[in-house]
Amino acid sequence: MGLTALQSRSARWIVSLIGLATFAFTCLRFYYQRGQEGQSVWNDAEVVAEHRIQEQEALKEQQFQESIQDIMNATLGFNKVLAINMPSRTDKRDQLVLGSSLTGFVIDFIDGVDAEGINPKTYPYNWNQEHSATEYACLRAHLNAAQRIVQQGLRTALVLEDDVDWDITIKPQLQTFAHAVRTLQDTVHTPTESPYGDEWDILWLGHCGASCKTEQPFYMIPNDPTLLKPTHLPTYYRQPPENVRPDTTRLVCTLQDAACTPAYAMSYRGAQRVLAALSVNPSGFADKLKTGDQIDIELGRMCESGLLKCFAPFPALAGTYRSAGLSSKGTDQSGHDGAAHMEPATSWGVVYSTMLNIKHILQGERVVHSTWPDVDSPVINPEDIHFERGYLYTFRPEHMDLIPTPEEEAVDESVFEDEPSFTDEPYSTSRPHATREPHPERGPEIRDPE
C-alpha cells in the first residue's frame, strides 16, 4: 500500500473520530440542557406551589382578622348582650346603659326575680333547701337568660349581672381572647359562625376564681397592659396550677371549674343543656352531676363533667362595681340596713374601669385613669394600649416550681388594628353578628381615683 493511500485512510479515521466526538458532545449538551430545563421547570413548580401555600395562609389569616372584627360591633361579636337587673334597681340599669354606650355596645335587659314572688312549684325536685329563696331567685334569673337564648334562637349571647364592671379596652381585650380560644379550639384558620369559634358552650369572662383542665393546653398572653398587679387581684376562690403564670401574663384555658357569674357568654347549645340539667330534667342528669345549688356552682359542675365545654381567662376580664352611696347599695339580697353608711364608688378586678372613668370620657378627655396609682401607666390614651399575640403552653406537673417559657416566640407587636375603645358617638349596629356580691375579704377597697 502506498504512502498516499495510508495518509488517506488515516485522514478518514481522524474525520470519523472527530465526527463521533462531535456527535457525542452534541448529545451530551442536548441532554444537559434538557436536564437543566427540567430542573428549572421543577424549581418553578416548587416556587409556584410555595407561593400558592403562602397565598392560602395569608387568605386564612385575612379571614380570621375579618372574623374577629365582628367583636368591634354593637354586641361584642355575640348575637346579643343580656343584663340581669331587678326593675327596682334603676340606678344599676343607668350605670350599665351609660357604661356600655361609652364603650360601644348595647344591652338588652332581663328582669331579675324577686324572691318573694317565687312560686314554690318552680323549684327543682332536688333544690338544696339550706339555700335561701334569694339564691334560688338568682338561679332562676340566669335560667331566664338561657331561656331567652333558646326562645329567640340566639347562636350566642353575653350575660351580665348588673354590678359588673369592665375595662375601657374591652373590645381589643376580647379580640385577643378570641384568638386564644380559637387557638385552643384549633379553629384560628377555620371558618366559624362566631368570632370566638363554634366549639364552646360557656366563655366565663368574669369570675372570682377559675381552675383549668391541666390535660389541655393553656394559651399565655404575655405583657398584657390591662393585667392587674398581684397585689390588686381580688380574692380568687379557685386558681390555675401554682407558678405556671408569670405576673405579667394572662392565661386562657379549658375550664375545670369557676366561681361567681358577673359576666359569661353562653352558646345556644349551652343554653339548651343548662335548661335541661337545672330545670326541665335534673333527674335525668343525676348520673353525671349533682344539681340543686347556686348558679355558679352548677355551671362549674357542668363544665367539670364535660356536659358543657367551657373556657376562661385568668385573671378575669370583667370585675364588679359599686357606685357611691349607702354601703348596702351593692346588694339586692337584703333590704335597707338602718346602720348603713355612705361609701365612695368602688371597683374590683379591672385596671382601667369603665365605671370609674365615665366622668373623664364625658368631660372630653382622650385619656383614662387607672383604678390604682401604682400601675405602669396611671393615665393613658386607650389607643396606646396594645396586646401581643400569645403562645401555647402544655402543663406538666414537674413545671409546678417553674415559670413557663414560650413554646413558640411571642410576637412583639399589636395583633389588631388600632381603634379607640370608648366613644361618645352613637354605637354602630353594623355587622350585627351574629349575683353574688363582692366578698368582704377580696382585698382593700379601691377608691375613685379622683
Overall description:
The chain is of the alpha+beta class and 450 residues long. It has one domain (59-324, 342-399). The chain is 32% helix and 15% strand. The strands form four sheets. Strands 1, 2, 3, 5, 6, 7, 8, 9, 10 and 17 form a ten-stranded mixed β-sheet that branches. α3 (133-151) packs across α5.
Short description:
This protein is α+β, with helices and mostly antiparallel strands and 450 residues long. It is built from seven helices and 17 strands. It has one domain.
Pick out its properties.
450 residues; alpha+beta; three-stranded antiparallel beta sheet; 17 strands; disordered C terminus
Largest β-sheet summary: 10 strands, mixed
Query: pLDDT under 50 segments (min length 5)?
Result: 408-421, 427-450
Indicate the radius of gyration in whole angstroms: 32 Å
What is the ordering of alpha helices and beta strands?
HEHEHEEHEEEEEHHEEEEEHEEE
Region (Disordered): 407-450
Organism: Penicillium cataractarum
Biased composition (Basic and acidic residues): 434-450
GO molecular function: transferase activity
Topology diagram in text:
Elements: H1 3-68, E1 80-85, H2 90-102, E2 108-111, H3 133-151, E3 156-161, E4 164-166, H4 170-185, E5 202-206, E6 210-212, E7 218-221, E8 250-258, E9 263-267, H5 268-280, H6 295-305, E10 310-314, E11 318-322, E12 325-326, E13 342-343, E14 346-348, H7 358-362, E15 368-369, E16 379-380, E17 391-393
Parallel strand pairs: 1-2, 1-3, 5-10
Antiparallel strand pairs: 3-9, 4-11, 5-9, 6-8, 7-8, 7-17, 8-10, 11-14, 12-13, 15-16
